[in-house]
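TICKET #2291
ISSUE: user wants both folds in one file
ATTACHMENT 1:
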Amino acid sequence: MDKFKEIRPIVLGLAIKNNKMLVSEGFDKVKNQTFYRCLGGGIEFLENSSDALKREFMEEINSEIIVKDFLGVSENIFTYNGKNAHELVFYYSIDVSDYKSEYIVNDDHGQTTATWIDIDDFKNGSKLLYPEEVFQYL
């Protein structure tokens, strides 16, 4: 699947502890903009979204999670590095089994880091959180 030419189903996990959320850092080279996103990724054909979330956390940060509540679905149409993209995003609240202050994330873009960032930093706009629809679940 070409994620820049088709609607892509993805799943994201909202791990929240002490008013902090586990997010990975991203960077858009065209916009010269740092942003953050909850961890997760693509749902494969015939894969349940909660199973996909567990798989993605294992692949990305080698961590097991407990999937708690299904929070909702949103449609995310955006531009990243100058390319248009379209996602259907499933959201779940989760617990991470092995709490660390920082994780190494292995994904399609190489290695990045994931850290716990205060939710107020996103709410007051000092840090960008995507997709914006995630705010309705905080």
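ATTACHMENT 2:
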Amino acid sequence: MSPNFPGLGPLDGGKVAVVVGGGPSGASCAIRMQQLAKQLHRDIRIVLFEPKQFEGERHFNQCVGVLSPPIMEILEDGLKISFPWHLVQREIYNYVLHSDRETILLEGEGQPSFAVHRVKFDAYLLKQAERQGIRVVQGRVTDLEFAPHGIMVYSDNENLRADVVVGAFGLDGGGCELFQRATSYQPPQALASIVTRIYPPVDFMKRFDSSIHAFLPGLRRIEFGAITPKKDHLTINIAGAQVTAEDMDAFLRLPAVRSVLPANFLPASLELQYFKGRFPIRPAKHLYGDRYVTLGDASGLLRPFKGKGINSGCLTGIRAAETILKLGISRKAFRSYYRLCDDVTQDMWYGRLIRQLAVSSANIGWLDVVIELARGHPHVRTGLFHCVSGHKSFKAIRQDISLRQTLPSLLFTGGRWLLKLTTQTHH
């Protein structure tokens, strides 16, 4: 027990931790807490609430479902669980970047990414938590009452007293509202996302390359889009501040997008199902306090523009668990958790800058110039790969690309591109 924060020291025997949400961040936090408690010989009780039923695929998760490096190390070294090879639908080695006029293949190095069915991955992690002795309750937490000596947790099927509550509810409206009522928490700023799936013929999917196609179109409402191959279908997503189904319709009509899809693809005739979600682009306000902490999407601690949400969810879960068991459950203790996430927080300024540059470049056609430049400059091409894939931090990408070396070539290429465009317009 901390002398400065009575009752708010490291979680010890007889105490209760409640995790609200059973996605990657919540399951990772519960698993790591259980492992540490056993190592430290502390008999703590961990209860995880998850209203959705992942088994049987009874709901759709708006996350595209790509596991990127170093997910294998996170699972096997950080959580001591096996990587779920049986869930991998396709290995992703490369990315293809499309502007409205230009296309470039960005070849990767090292470990591939893995396309999975996201709901099955969530079910796998939750099952791992249950196997380690964590009690999973299928229900929604409906209210929290914070008192000096603990928290009363109400749900739609049972109530209990807890010593600490972990918010791993993503950007679920109910979870956000719950924590806003009970604490100082304010949800992170977020972009909207529309996701759909198409099922091309088997031969088409067999020929489809092991690449994710990324699009930065000149449509001002769409910041980016992507087509991700799975085993028997393509997942298509777009994102923007206020994207709607009409924006997805417009995206699917773009020539650059149609060039990747089957030649006879007619969206109107397929009655495609659209799913809408959100993902954060800034950290939440007051994302922790005495007896509570938020993780993953709920915390907003994701890399901007290229979130790698599953990785961030697992990592924030692990870091929060270690803080709770080793340092405590006070606001001061959770400041250390926030500092442990400086790999994300210190990259945010660079990520916002890259995001603004990418959106502006696409809107004015300057992205065509960058793609043309990348064809003749390997370091620019490598930088684009890491920007799209998220394999490197934006800070590291900025350090790898010397503006002193690149700017003259960029200006020369831009001038040549403008001359070509002007000539084409006159003819």
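RESOLUTION: both attachments delivered.
EXTRA DETAIL ON ATTACHMENT 2: Confidence is low (pLDDT under 50) at residues 1-5, 407-422.
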